[in-house]
Amino acid sequence: MYYILKKRKIFKSKIETYYQKKVTYFTKKNQLSQTISFFQNKMNSQEFNVFLRERSLNFWKSQKGKPSNIMMYTGIKVNGKFEEVDGKQTQFQFSDLLTQLGVYNETIIRGSDILFMEFPSQKEKN
Predict the structure, then answer these.
(1) Are residues 121 and 74 part of one domain?
(2) What is the CA 62 to chain-centroid distance, rounded?
(3) Bridge partners, 4 (sequence order)
(4) What CATH number is associated with residue 91?
(5) Which residue numbers in the chain have pLDDT < 70?
(6) Which of 2, 14, 72, 98 could form a disulfide with 76, with the two C-beta atoms 3.0–4.6 Å apart?
(7) CA separation, residue 46 to residues 35, 39, 41, 80, 125 (Å)
(8) CB half-sphere exposure, 85, CA atoms < 13 A
């Protein structure tokens, strides 16, 4: 019981930190769902959209230079290093893209051609 109360106290202090213009991101799934539902209730839709957009951009920024596995819409699997995404998240730039036809040093792939992307974690590699 004490551990749960302590967690709630920490969670509450992190939300207060957000309102002091210091954005805090949560990594645990249960805290993330609580945070999103809290923000939906406390913010208007425009503020909430800004919050989600910022999280999205920070995610793409954190993935820069990391290897990724890409499943194309046609069912072809390719591998490469993720480099950048455009502002509308419709085009993705990769380097050292390994395809069935060879290796491309730099390439841009349309988002509509990608079925999904995977970014293997360090735990999966070891």
Answers:
(1) yes
(2) 8
(3) none
(4) 2.30.30.100
(5) 1-43, 122-126
(6) 72
(7) 17, 11, 12, 35, 39
(8) 17
